[in-house]
Amino acid sequence: DRSSNDREGILVGCGNPLLDISAIVPMDFLQKYEMKEDDAILAEERHMPIYRELVDGFQAEFLAGGSVQNSLRIAQWILGQPKVAVFFGCVGEDEYADILMEKARSAGLDVHYQIKKDVPTGTCAVLITGTHRSLCANLAAANNFTIDHLDQPLNKALVDNALYYYISGFFLTVNPPSIMQVAATALAKQRPFLMNLSAPFISQFYMAPLLAVMPYVDIIFGNEAEAHAFATAQGWPTEDLREIGKRLVALDKLNPARPRIAILTQGCDPVLLIQRDSVEEFPVTRLAVHEIVDTNGAGDAFVGGFLSQFVQGKSLDVCIRCGNYAAGHIIKNPGCTYTGEPQFVE
Ligand code: AP5
Ligand code: NA
Predict the structure, then answer these.
(1) Which atom of ligand 1 is nearest to the CA of 63?
(2) Top mutation candidate among 284, 293, 320 for ligand 1, by most atoms within 8 Å of CB
């Protein structure tokens, strides 16, 4: 076991740093942009007016977002000690980047943004309709991340010295070579590489790069919709989440000494922990309707809670219980935000 002082920089993540612009909107707003209630998509040209419209016409809230950055902020909150987690991603040189940087740093995250001067920082529209939310990410600067950022001497040292790596499926739309490089480092050093299926569109449209990295993935996270999308894209003849999980862990793997694990969340239903020979369930404490502010960020917070324990070498059982704790907490807060001190008891 490392002493807590040795923990600095042990977790490295790469992703899209996005500022969430969140607002409650009527259904016809979604219809106007041909969006679905519970979806996550990348913005196309026709979606670009959304962001301005949200700010001008609704009571929009600005919240730090971006899936991996969310998870790492939550992990930092639970760990307490700053700079355990390091984050790489690309932003512009603007006010939104300043907000993101400030939120990440005040959470204790060690951010090392690549900065692209003439591109705006990415945003994600969070369109809330009742208990549903639809995400539309305009990656902007985040889409400009390049592998040479990881090759800068300081950043290379941070990657080399980490003990755990976490990258979202979302980052597959941006820079697969960076993902492959980090994954290869993890493999060479026999250190865990964790990934997330992130959204159905990743399996639908980015299956080739996803399958290219899968042999390196030690732990794969996903929710029900994402697991089903993966299964469908693979042509697996099953809709059973346990069976999908078993097939996910059975996909080719480069380091057979560390069999793959799949962790599938299903809202307020139990979390499934799938290993080669077993499927275990971890119950979720159902929240009362009046306690729920919004579920946005629940999936990311789950991973954050999990990571906070995993990097301390805790058992999978403790990691998953902390994931459920963290998700439950952020559901009681707007977006992926927290209040007060963490109350997780092992
Ligand atoms: P994310 O964090 O994934 O949030 P979400 O998808 O809105 O969260 P969901 O509520 O849908 O959770 P889930 O379906 O993943 O998990 P589940 O319901 O199983 O994404 C939001 C962020 O994504 C934004 O900040 C945005 O910036 C970012 N983003 C969007 N596009 C991006 C892109 N292209 N690149 C990068 N970032 C991007 O729940 C998980 C756990 O929550 C459960 O296991 C349980 O513990 C708990 N839980 C859920 N529901 C309940 C309940 N009713 N009661 C109690 N606990 C619950
Ligand atoms: Na929330």
Answers:
(1) 25
(2) 284
Structural domain harbouring 235: 4-17+66-121+139-331
Q: Which ligand is nearest to the CA of 134?
A: 1
Examine residue 188 and state whether it is found in any structural domain, yes or no.
yes
pLDDT for 5: 62
Map the chain to HEC letters: CCCHHHHCCCEEEECCCEEEEEEECCHHHHHHCCCCCCCEEECCHHHCHHHHHHHHHCCCEEEECCHHHHHHHHHHHHHCCCCCEEEEEEECCCHHHHHHHHHHHHCCCEEEEEECCCCCCEEEEEEEECCEEEEEEECHHHHHCCCHHHHCHHHHHHHHHCCEEEEEHHHHHCCHHHHHHHHHHHHHCCCCEEEECCCHHHHHHCHHHHHHHHHHCCEEEEEHHHHHHHHHHHCCCCCCHHHHHHHHHHCCCCCCCCCCEEEEEECCEEEEEEECCEEEEECCCCCCHHHCCCCCCHHHHHHHHHHHHHCCCCCHHHHHHHHHHHHHHHHCCCCCCCCCCCCCCC
For the purposes of burial, counting CB atoms within 10 Å of the CB of 37, is it exposed (0-12), middle (13-18) or buried (19 or more)?
middle
Would the CB of 312 count as within 6 Å of ligand 1? no
Question: Which atom from ligand 1 is nearest to the alpha carbon of 336?
Answer: 25
Residue 274, φ and ψ in degrees, nearest 5: -110, 120
Which of 51, 302, 337 for mutating ligand 1's site (highest number of atoms within 8 Å of CB)?
302
Q: pLDDT at position 4, please?
A: 57
Catalytic annotation, residues: 300
- Model pLDDT for residues 285-320, shown as the tens digit of each residue: 999 989 988 888 999 999 999 999 999 999 999 999
Work out the average pLDDT over 328-333: 94
Instruction: Please name which of 338, 297, 288 lies closest in space to residue 133, comparing C-alpha atoms.
Output: 297
Q: Give the CATH number for residue 76.
A: 3.40.1190.20
Domain count, the chain: 1
